[in-house]
Amino acid sequence: MSNPWSNPDDLSPQAAAELAAFIDARSQRPDQSAAHDALIDALAPQPGERVIDLGCGAGVIARRVAARVQPQGEVLGVDISRAMLDFAESQPAMPGLRYQQADSQALPCADASFDAATAARLLMHVDDPQGILREARRIVRPLGRIAILEADWGTAALDHSDRALTRRIIDWRTDHIDGENWMGRQLVRHCLATGWGRVDVRVWAAIARDDSGTLAASLRRCADLAFAHSVITIDEKTGWLAEIDDRLAQGSFLATMNEYIVVARNPAT
User: Fold this and answer.
1) CATH topology of domain 8-152+179-205+259-265
2) Which of 65, 106, 191, 260 is the most buried (most CB within 10 A)?
3) What are the respective helix, strand and coil percentages of the chain, to the nearest 5?
4) 211-247, pLDDT tens digit by residue?
């Protein structure tokens, strides 16, 4: 199944621009902002450092890291999509921040030219995540670091009376929609296979009790897509969503999902 997140330039110009705006707006929701805080805290960017943000998209992480490396630090945001970078470059300029269109598997950067790298929900959308991690090792200096954030839809949990239907909807979404949805649990293996060392793993849990975050909307999208692909019937979709809406209205809704943050070091040469 096609994945629009892999390269938004494959969409129509209007759809790609709308996706960039959606990503930017989504980043301001409380759960997404907290996940980004956790990633940046794990990266621990320091004033004066040079950092590259791989698959920077609309520039959400790049902007926040740029604020942390001042004075005299630099952040380069790279993305395969021109539409994403057009949106990022339309935002207010920041000292030391620039963008460049590039494939993260073939970066136009010198060896050992960055102190650190970051990648947020990039690897799940590419065919060769280890190719990106190898390329990141090339451009990050010895003893430099990478911080990676990836979701894991296989950990999604929802309190719902229809367990079988809930499993069917979420498992189908996990296996068929928007890339490799077990990427979070695969990060350690991919880092070690590409020569990164001192791998530290952290788990950030999205906990949804209401609609203020993004998880409730994502679950609704699961049902919409499952119906559109004939995985569930209209009655199953309607009933499943009605219970979610009822629990939200009553204050008894609970859904969670793990995201994994891995920080790894480039060994000394």
Assistant:
1) Rossmann fold (3.40.50)
2) 65
3) 45, 20, 35
4) 999 999 999 999 999 999 999 999 999 999 999 999 9
